[in-house]
Specification:
Length: 128
């Protein structure tokens, strides 16, 4: 095999590993946010909405984490390099993030965001 072909194969393999790592880490950290969201009726968990390029507006009528996580997994692109938004437009979500509920006194987004470096390392290790 020529050096050029070897180099192309290396770059392709590296890009695939990067893509898998970024997608896996994004899905994991966003799932953690959803699952850490306090539950009363389930509306707050269900209103986490995933989009690419710009955040979604409005609220949904879904309840619970399952639909929000399904949307997350289906929406996060397979290739790295896109901006993924995970937003929640409920009027009280900020209160939940800043300790209104004893179920998540330290918040959901802030706590999950601190896990990002560890999650990326774990995902990268899976795709060596």
């Amino acid at each position: 095999m020529s050096f050029s072909k070897q180099l192309t194969a290396f770059v392709t393999g590296a890009q695939e590993k990067i893509d898998k790592t970024v997608k896996g880490a994004t899905v994991t950290v966003a799932s953690n946010v959803i699952l850490a969201t306090p539950v009363d009726t389930g509306t707050a968990r269900g209103n986490w909405q995933t989009s690419v390029g710009q955040p979604k507006a409005g609220v949904t009528d879904r309840s619970g984490a399952d639909a929000a996580i399904s949307e997350l997994v289906a929406t996060v692109p397979d290739e790295a390099g896109n901006v993924v938004y995970v937003s929640n437009n409920l009027p009280y979500i900020r209160k939940l993030e800043y300790g209104h509920s004893q179920q998540a006194p330290q918040g959901m987004v802030r706590v999950s965001a601190t896990e990002w470096p560890r999650i990326v390392q774990e995902e990268a290790a899976k795709h060596k």
